[in-house]
């Protein structure tokens, strides 16, 4: 499947493209896609109650807020985000950022797999918010 074949989803900020999904390839254990985030843009805070999210930064300079705590995320770095952990991705660099993401296992129904915790309007990020103290695989926390 080619990225250009996937309709962009911009409802949550950024340009999210779910590529390999139950609907497109019949996957049964998860799905994979690409997020494209322009300088100054972000993917709004959310969490996944049923899935872990695995991300790999292809290019760009990002900060990921995990339960309110900011962490730098650079090209060629990966991260595993546990289920229920609130997260948002912000492009803090001067060039487009691209992230490959995979979520699994699947939620019982697609509508249950993603919970937004902020809107996509202009948001003030509370960088000093307390985190839940969970271990973050891939960031050395």
Structure description:
It is a single chain. The chain is globular and about 35 Å long. About 11% of the residues have low confidence. The chain has one helix and ten strands. The protein is an all-beta fold and 141 residues long. 22% of the residues are buried. The chain has a five-stranded antiparallel sheet with strand order 1-2-9-4-7. Strand 5 and strand 6 form a beta hairpin. It has a single domain, classed as Sandwich (Jelly Rolls), CATH 2.60.120.
Q: Quick one: biggest sheet?
A: 5 strands, antiparallel
Radius of gyration: 14 Å
**Helix-strand string:** EHEEEEEEEEE
* Second rung of CATH, namely the architecture: Sandwich
Tally of individual domains: 1
Number of helices: 1
CATH topology: Jelly Rolls
Number of strands: 10
**Mean of residue pLDDT values:** 88
CATH C-level label? Mainly Beta
First-to-last CA distance: 35 Å
Strand order in space, largest sheet: 1-2-9-4-7
Helix content: under 10%
Say which CATH homologous superfamily is assigned: Jelly Rolls
Brief digest:
With 141 residues, the chain is mainly beta. It has one helix at 22-25; strands at 15-20, 31-37, 42-47, 52-59, 62-66, 69-73, 78-81, 87-91, 97-104, 115-116.
């Amino acid at each position: 499947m080619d990225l250009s074949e996937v309709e962009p989803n911009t409802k949550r900020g950024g340009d999210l493209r779910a590529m390999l999904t139950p609907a497109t390839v019949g996957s049964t254990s998860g799905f994979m896609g690409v997020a494209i985030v322009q300088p100054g843009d972000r993917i709004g805070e959310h969490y996944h109650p049923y899935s872990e999210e695995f991300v790999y930064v292809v290019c760009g300079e990002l900060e990921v807020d995990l339960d309110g705590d900011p962490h730098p995320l650079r090209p060629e770095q990966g991260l595993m985000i546990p289920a229920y952990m609130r997260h948002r991705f912000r492009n803090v660099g001067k060039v487009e950022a691209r992230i490959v993401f995979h979520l699994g296992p699947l939620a019982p129904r697609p509508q249950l797999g993603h919970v937004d915790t902020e809107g996509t309007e202009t948001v003030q990020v509370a960088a000093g918010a307390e985190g839940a103290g969970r271990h973050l695989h891939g960031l050395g926390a």
